[in-house]
Amino acid sequence: MSTISLHDIRKEFPVESGVEVAVDGVSLDIEDGEFITLVGPSGCGKTTTLRCIAGLERPTSGTIVFDGQDVTEVPAEKRQLAMMFQNIALYPHMTIRDNIAYPLKVDGLPKAERHERAREAAAVMQIEDMLEKKPGDLSGGQRQRAALARTVVQDPIAFLMDEPLSDLDAKLKIEIRREILNVHKRIGRPTIYVTHDQEEALTMSDRIAVMNDGKIEQFGTREDVYYYPENLFVAHFIGNPSINTLEGELTDLSDDSGRVTVHGETIDFSVDRRFGDRTSGDVLVGFRPQSVSLGDRVESPLFELELLLVEPIDDRALARLEGPEGELRALVPARQWLVENEITPVGIDPDGIYLFDAATEELLATSGGASATEIPTSLNAE
Ligand code: ADP
Ligand code: MG
């Protein structure tokens, strides 16, 4: 069994102006076999958190526990973790076999066993016929598979991956994502995966830790963070194109229904989930671009807005509109006839509403929950 717990991890780096707080009180409990993603914008502390888990950084305070044992002071090489980073450092002069087997050589295993285990790992990654070749003879995808095989061969207690796919093209990304998930399922050990790409997080994870400024804003399943973002930061970060928000005034909110006024227009909605006990006051009304309809598809328009730009995305079109507080985004069927620079009726699906407290930016209620929109992941596309 392998579990990993972080208790209130803080990591400061000395800098000229004083200290840089890279990780600011991160706690996480990762269960055996879970695929966890740390996701957030650049500089939010993902890599530093991962390096603390790996033992490559020593936390300023807090503890790291593997399987009930405090490993905070245990050096990296004794932690039995497999790591994979963006820059796959295969040794160019070594064969793929020796590259894959390298961690076993470091551990002092005899040659025959090293080669057998390298062959097994290569078979899992479908690069068995590449064993005699050098990294330079392989394609980018094959090199990534070799790097993955090198992590598998170690029989680690957990896998740590830091943006391993960011240098790959879109098609290869989807392919290697699937390989990583296959390996994860096969080995059944926890994987902690770092990415700044929210779509990758939604596609791969059992649970997602959304990070911002050294802290975890929310830790939950993809459904939790997409349908029930605990605050405005998570709502904005998860989902692309990102959620729209408008200032509004809440006039009524119960466990069943609510009423909010947005720029003089009233929206009545039924309540899916409610958080806290606020019933009125200043709010931010969030709605995803998928919940906005335009033109002749609108039954009861809320606004008439100028259509600034329409760009096709897959089988849909992203429309940008001149909203009352800046740009509003709508995802509409690509076939819909829309004319740029014209005024168009705009409707918002009352089942697609996320209500946030204007002061604290915390979630107060949602209307449609999981029935409102589908979570966009690259798995949906296949
Ligand atoms: P992420 O991986 O999310 O992009 P990092 O963990 O790399 O973020 O960095 C978090 C913050 O800590 C950033 O502001 C970064 O500049 C700072 N930081 C990271 N490593 C060091 C270091 N060795 N010295 C000083 N500051 C650092
Ligand atoms: Mg990083």
Shape: globular
What is the number of domains? 2
Rg calc: 24 Å
- Low-pLDDT parts are none
CATH topology call of the largest domain: Rossmann fold
According to CATH, the homologous superfamily of the largest domain is: P-loop containing nucleotide triphosphate hydrolases
How large is the count of helical segments?
8
Give the SSE string: EEEHEEEHHHEHEHEEHHEEEEEEEEEEEE
Structural class: alpha+beta
The molecules bound to the chains, other than polymers, are:
adenosine-5'-diphosphate, magnesium ion
Termini gap: 33 Å
The average pLDDT is: 93
Please give a structural write-up.
A hairpin with a 2-residue loop joins strand 18 (316-323) and strand 19 (326-333). This protein folds into 2 domains: 4-227, Rossmann fold (3-Layer(aba) Sandwich); 241-370, Nucleic acid-binding proteins (OB fold (Dihydrolipoamide Acetyltransferase, E2P)). The longest helix has 18 residues, at 170-187. The chain has helices spanning 46-54, 96-106, 111-124, 140-152, 170-187, 198-204, 222-227, 232-237, and strands at 4-15, 18-30, 35-39, 61-66, 69-70, 81-85, 158-162, 191-195, 207-212, 215-220, 244-253, 257-262, 265-270, 273-274, 281-287, 292-294, 303-313, 316-323, 326-333, 343-348, 353-357, 363-366. With 382 residues, the protein is an alpha+beta fold. Adenosine-5'-diphosphate binds next to strand 1, strand 2 and helix 1.
For this entry, give a set of tags.
382 residues; alpha+beta; 2 domains; 7-stranded antiparallel beta sheet; globular; binds magnesium ion
